[in-house]
UniProtKB/TrEMBL annotation:
Molecular function via GO: beta-galactosidase activity
All residue ranges annotated as the Beta-galactosidase galactose-binding domain in the record: 506-564
InterPro entries membership: B-gal_1-like (IPR026283), BetaGal1-like_ABD1 (IPR048912), BetaGal_gal-bd (IPR048913), Galactose-bd-like_sf (IPR008979), GH (IPR017853), Gly_Hdrlase_35_cat (IPR031330), Glyco_hydro_35_CS (IPR019801), Glycoside_Hdrlase_35 (IPR001944)
Family named by the database record: Belongs to the glycosyl hydrolase 35 family.
Protein name: Beta-galactosidase
Alphabetical list of SUPFAM superfamilies matching this protein: (Trans)glycosidases, Galactose-binding domain-like
Residues annotated as catalytic: E157 (proton donor), E239 (nucleophile)
Record GO biological process: carbohydrate metabolic process
Residue ranges occupied by any Beta-galactosidase 1-like first all-beta domain in the UniProt entry: 374-487
The protein's Enzyme Commission number: 3.2.1.23
Length: 590
């Protein structure tokens, strides 16, 4: 059993210890891939792995907790320990991480009186309920109990958000109440204003810095902050950004491997490091976050490759070898080894078996809720994905206009199953002109939640409630009597493909892929518009032909030997009779 302390240095069993850590998010890679990524971190010569813990996955419905399969944090940490790695956990309610709503569960938004990420008793009560269950899972993993966990984070970059010290104190007290014994830390920008707002000095909690370059300058700022407050703490960059995340319709961000290695070396010569990310992984399902730039929302892509030391698949990149060489130059006695590499399937093509329009089978793949006025997603107990609103409007002799009032994030408007408009958040509310010529006309509005903001001022805004928030107007009047269909992608077995496929409408396309043995692969979606892909019941995530990515990564663990079912839900009416599986990801030239 080991001991770990924060004094003038990090002390492991009483001896100085340089933390050389890399971030691997267990929830962004499949459990079958955990060993591969953790082994490669050890092969780099590093001694620690760091991970966030996403509240919104572990408590997807209030009071119902899940720590199984891909969410088995205990198994991930124990596996790291078997490989000789120590562990840093970041279990704060908010994680950012380019993750949906910064890791906070969307059901919090149903309480309009609650101020999230604050000392509001309503919010702290929800955190307390979560922590009571969470720390029963991760408490036994602490180093004083024979586990590998050496530190835990109090809050995440709070210094770039607020100054509510009562909130930080409340989190501290909850962690202590739940038997957290390892040292706590905060992580913020290295500059004085962020450190001052985010630190909890009165509880003697270590403050660390987050940056991606200029280590000497940033560590100097961090050390000055420590000294101003009478602290003689070790210096650590808790997030050294070795790459960056990517948004739809923007170029992929890249960083030179040799430049990165020199920058990492500069950090290691002064203090400790956590590479963010070592292996980025994938935003499976609907878990991508969203950036906020002024009033504009910029959703992030499904791939969380991050241009990290391991690519999305988990294989070493040039960055891995550049940093590995730098580590050897600085610490020649550290044990390093060859990294593991995963194989990929040979290219294959799956043929289309069946197709059907969403409008033809919507009741069998959704939860139906009628109401006088449209309700938002959260009120309908739907937190992610797509919601279809349907109503009838009477005939009109002349052209008239429809207005969708206050909705997020993307709406498709159909009149009698013909698309008449697509609007994004910045356009929603503008007039949509149409001619309802039938005696009774079907008005359908498909709303997509493209991902909640994960960082900044919009974490408080009503814009994070998705779907239609206010209503829909025909000319000057709000339309009443709506049917709402919360699309449930766990109900796809109920699809009757004998029903009609209607050209130009959102539809389901079913393919079959036969493989003799499993392996990683990439689905080429260049011929498709926008939507999601489900493989053997597992939601891989979103695709969109605006780029920069035009494929989805399929881990081998999702495939079966023999027949595999692939269902593409596509919303733009762009599809193909064949679905190609390739050895490499596809990118759009931006």
């Amino acid at each position: 059993m080991h001991t770990f302390e924060v004094k003038e240095d990090f002390l492991l069993d009483g001896h100085p210890f340089k933390i050389m850590s890399g971030a691997i998010h267990y929830f962004r890679i499949r459990p079958q891939e955990w060993y591969h990524s953790l082994y490669n971190l050890k092969a780099l010569g590093f001694n620690t792995v760091e991970t966030y813990i996403p509240w919104n996955l572990h408590e997807q419905e209030e009071g119902k907790f899940d720590f199984t399969a891909q969410l088995d944090i205990q198994e991930f940490v124990r596996l790291a320990q078997k490989l000789g790695l120590f562990v840093i956990l970041r279990p704060s309610p908010y994680i950012c991480a380019e993750w949906e709503f910064g890791g906070m569960p969307a059901w919090l938004l149903n309480d309009r009186d609650m101020r999230i990420r604050s000392s509001d008793p309503l919010f702290i009560e929800k955190v307390a309920n979560y922590y009571e269950v969470l720390f029963k899972e991760i408490g036994p993993l602490q180093i004083d109990q024979g586990g590998p966990v050496i530190m835990m984070q109090l809050e995440n970059e709070y210094g770039s958000y607020g100054e509510d010290k009562d909130y930080l104190l409340a989190l501290h007290d909850l962690m202590i109440k739940n038997q957290v014994k390892v040292p706590l830390f905060t992580s913020d920008g290295a500059w004085e204003e962020a450190q001052r707002a985010g630190a909890l000095l009165e509880k003697d909690i270590l403050s660390t810095g987050n940056f991606g370059s200029k280590a000497k300058q940033n560590f100097k700022q961090l050390k000055n902050f420590h000294q101003q407050h009478g602290k003689n703490w070790p210096l650590m960059c808790m997030e050294f950004w070795d790459g960056w995340f990517n948004r739809w319709n923007e170029e992929i961000v890249k960083r030179d491997p040799e430049e990165l290695a020199e920058a990492v070396g500069e950090v290691l010569e002064i203090g400790s490091i956590n590479l963010y990310m070592f292996h980025g992984g994938t935003n499976f399902g609907f878990m991508n976050g969203c950036s906020a730039r002024g009033d504009k929302d910029l959703p992030q892509i499904t791939s969380y490759d991050y241009d990290a030391l391991l690519d999305e698949q988990g294989n070493p990149t040039e960055k891995f070898f550049s940093v590995q060489r730098k580590v050897h130059d600085l610490f020649p006695d550290i044990e390093q080894s060859e990294p593991l590499r995963k194989s990929v399937l040979e290219p294959k093509v799956a043929d289309l078996k069946e197709k059907v329009s969403l409008f033809s089978i919507v009741e069998s793949v959704s939860q139906h809720t009628p109401s006088k006025y449209p309700e938002n997603m959260e009120k309908l107990n739907q937190h992610y994905g797509y919601l279809l609103y349907s109503t009838k409007i009477p005939s009109h002799p002349d052209e008239e206009f429809i207005r969708v009032i206050d909705a997020s994030d993307r709406v498709h408007v159909f009149l009698n199953q013909t698309k008449i408009a697509t609007q994004y958040r910045e356009e929603i509310g503008e007039k949509i002109f149409c001619k309802p010529s039938k005696e009774q006309n079907q008005l359908d509005i498909l709303v997509e939640n493209m991902g909640r903001v994960n960082y900044g001022h919009k974490l408080l805004a009503d814009t994070q409630r998705k779907g239609i928030r206010s209503g829909v107007m025909s000319d000057l009047h709000f339309i009443c009597e709506w049917d709402q269909y919360s699309i449930d992608f766990s109900k796809l077995d109920h699809i009757d493909y004998k029903q009609a496929w209607i050209e130009g409408t959102p539809a389901f396309y079913r393919y079959e892929l036969v493989v003799e043995k499993t392996g990683d692969t990439f689905i080429d979606l260049q011929k498709f518009g926008k939507g999601v892909v489900i493989v053997n019941g597992f939601n891989l995530g979103r695709f969109w032909n605006c780029g920069p990515t035009q494929s989805l990564y399929v881990p081998a663990s999702i495939l079966n030997t023999g027949i595999n079912e692939i269902i593409v839900f596509e919303t733009e009416g762009e599809w193909s009779s064949e679905l190609a599986f390739e050895k490499q990801p596809k990118y759009k030239k931006m």
